[in-house]
Amino acid sequence: MIRFEQVSKRYADGTVAVEDLTFQIAEGELVTLVGPSGCGKTTTMKMVNRLIEPTSGQVLLDGADIATIDPVDLRRRIGYVIQQVGLFPHKTVLENTETVPRLLGHRRTRSRARAAELLELVGLDPDAHGRRYPDQLSGGQRQRVGVARALAADPPVLLMDEPFGAVDPLVREHLQTEFRKLQETVRKTVLFVTHDIEEAVRMGDRMAVYGAGRLEQFDAPSKVLGAP
Ligand code: ADP
Ligand code: ADP
């Protein structure tokens, strides 16, 4: 589904962020991308939604080079969750969540129903939490809204960049468990970036382990842990 073929990225200042990446994420698979700060995780992720162009090699989505996919179509097919999800501060949680269905042209009642459904899916109460404003939610709840919003367009692919990185450890563990459960139902193709090895082990069907700009291991967590 997502395929990197000999992908390298050198920035304008000469920094080689990643080199010769070749790997594949199967449909419905959750791959965690783990490694120390500066090893090229964000660069890798941004080459999937084309925020960054590779210097050489190809990134393919369903067999098509993403450089040939219409940007609007690409955006629709890829949901994106970041560490500090940007919610509109003057809109309620429900209004924030229905933004995407509205943009997709659904009528207000239908969008509202979809938003309520999504909030329930991520463990929020559409009535109680839905009426609040983002600053009236905890950090963990805001991240849940971020996940709901990313799922709103029903994209087959989700990119998650340290999505639970800014919440405290207990809530974080809870969100990890809940997201794993959610993934069993929604079965998205997920690339999940984290610098936390425990999170990578807990969440990943497989793990991509980076050392400076290179893929060092790509295997199931049990295999990675068992490696010498
Ligand atoms: P990570 O997400 O693992 O922290 P990044 O992909 O952000 O790593 O960065 C990989 C390397 O590329 C680092 O050495 C970083 O300093 C460098 N880098 C990132 N963005 C740029 C840029 N726009 N210009 C030059 N170097 C960059
Ligand atoms: P970082 O947290 O690593 O600094 P950024 O916040 O710079 O990442 O990059 C995320 C950017 O991508 C945001 O500006 C956001 O508006 C934009 N973005 C959000 N969703 C998508 C998407 N589906 N495709 C492309 N870009 C997106």
Automatic annotation (TrEMBL):
This enzyme's EC code(s): 7.6.2.9
Cellular-component GO terms for this entry: membrane
Keyword set includes Repeat: yes
Keywords: ATP-binding, Nucleotide-binding, Repeat, Transport
UniProt keyword Lipid metabolism, yes or no: no
Domain ABC transporter: 2-228
GO biological process, one term: glycine betaine transport
Enzyme class, spelled out: translocase
Gene Ontology MF term list: ABC-type quaternary ammonium compound transporting activity; ATP binding; ATP hydrolysis activity
Family: Belongs to the ABC transporter superfamily.
Name used for this protein in its record: ABC-type quaternary amine transporter
Organism from which the protein derives: Streptomyces oceani
Residue window of the full protein shown: 1 to 228 of 415
